[in-house]
Amino acid sequence: MKFRREFALLALCHAVPASTFVPLSLKARTTSLASPSEKYAFYSMTGDPSGPLLAENNEYNNNYDAIKNGQRDAFSNLSVTELKRILIDRGVDFRDCLEKRDLVERLRESEAMGYGSSYQQAHSPSSEGLLSEEVVLINTFKRVSPSVANIKTTTFVPAQDGLRLRPMEVPIGTGSGFLWDSKGHVVTNFHVVSAGRRDGRIPETVKVKLAGLVEARDADVVGVEPEKDLAVLRLRDRRNLPPPIPVGTSNDLQVGQSVLAIGNPFGLDDTLTKGIVSALGRDVDGIGGRPIHGCIQTDAAINQGNSGGPLMDSRGRLIGVNTAIFSPSGGNVGIGFAIPVDTVRRVVNQIINYGKVVRPTLGISIVDDRIVKAIEQQLGRQVEGCLVASVVPNSPAETSGLQASQLSGDGSVLLGDLVTEINGEPVRQAEDLISAVEEKDEGDVVTLRVLRKCDPRQAEYVRVRLTTRDKLDGQNRIGARAPWQ
């Protein structure tokens, strides 16, 4: 289901002047343990592996027992999700781990350190007159809120000073963000730092005020990814920073689980709201013009100014970045959306390492979905997939033998390959193929199922090794606007 209208980007830009973007900011804290109904095993945060909180995943527990008994190779037998769960429960940060082997190495390091735990609960307040759930929520908020940021974008305008004109710094938008790591990187929405400008121009100055610091600090823009509505800043002054928010996972979220949000709605900083995961897998139109896939829908109250703030689970772990609300009126109606943290990790790590997102590509351009539907009507049969329009010279697609559609001398179209699957996942339209490729890395090999000449009787499987668009640009000297997938 795609929402294309009446989205208010939480651009945190309830700006000067008023903007059509609606800022969001969410913050949350809780340390409640997983419920018995969940289908995976969590181990005690105390680092005691002797007593699993849940034991429904026998294979996982057996692997873990093997690790306990000294069979260290069993680390590699765990899935990426299982590795993350153990690291999370031990309080070990893994946000900078790009590959599975990095997670395995981080887990081995934690084993050698005796389960070290930087994920300690804050000192409990007096529980007199409070429910246990309230005490957990209070502790979580106190632990996480210092890392949530109020972000203000400013610009310089000429101001009259007697007979002279002098530059004066004025605010143009506000939003939320949060500290990503101990190196001073701060994550927020792209539409926050661009102050809702459609041209995407970045302001001269971005000021970041962390709740745990007394004064706002200047920050530089490290990089942005408009299509995912994400931006990474870096504080110039990185002294005395609070601990970053613990990072969770989003691939194992469940509809109905509790979530927390902290942000600066309408300029009211350090605001905590609570709700649940209302739905998963939503497609939300981003400021870059393309939908952001797999967004989390929540009923936690988020409003203008919440954009870029963290969405967290009940234990205060980051599960998403608030980005938009569905609102005919412009205010909160209980339908908000967050970019899933698995996507955030991938994008943020690339921006930190390379200054931009390095997108992999097959080296093809594809026919617009509407044209494919028209071809389907002319053929009188179903044509479901991505039709190859052209193959970039010297690209992986050319090496693997993918065939493009061609225009004959009499004006008729000779149909080329129709991509119907990638790595066993169905491809029904362009976004299916684009999203699947974007989730991969340079050098990864993908298996495509193609119908030669769009003929169901000529199905073949083709293996393609991905490269980057920048490399193909350099080889072919083609502009960045080439519609490659």
Written account of the structure:
The structure is a single chain. The protein is an alpha+beta fold and 485 residues long. It folds into 3 domains: 265 residues, Thrombin, subunit H (Beta Barrel), CATH 2.40.10; 89 residues; 117 residues, Pdz3 Domain. Helices cover 21% and strands 30% of the residues. It is built from 11 helices and 25 strands. It has a 6-stranded antiparallel barrel. Strand 7 and strand 8 form a beta hairpin. Helix 3 packs parallel to helix 4. The longest helix has 14 residues. It is globular and about 80 Å long. 42% of the residues are buried. GO terms for molecular function: serine-type peptidase activity. Belongs to the peptidase S1C family. Pfam families: ARMET_C, PDZ_2, Trypsin_2. It comes from Nitzschia inconspicua. Keywords: Hydrolase, Protease, Serine protease, Signal.
Quick tags:
485 residues; alpha+beta; Thrombin, subunit H; Pdz3 Domain; 3 domains; 6-stranded antiparallel β-barrel; 21% helix; disordered C terminus
Strand content: 25-35%
**CATH topology group of the largest domain:** Thrombin, subunit H
What ranges have pLDDT less than 50 throughout 5 or more consecutive residues? 1-60, 116-126, 477-483
Count of alpha/pi helices? 11
The average pLDDT score comes to 75
CATH architecture descriptor text of the largest domain:
Beta Barrel
From the alpha carbons, calculate the radius of gyration and give it in angstroms.
24 Å
Keywords: Hydrolase, Protease, Serine protease, Signal
Organism: Nitzschia inconspicua
Protein name: Peptidase S1 and S6 chymotrypsin/Hap family protein
Domain PDZ: 351-454
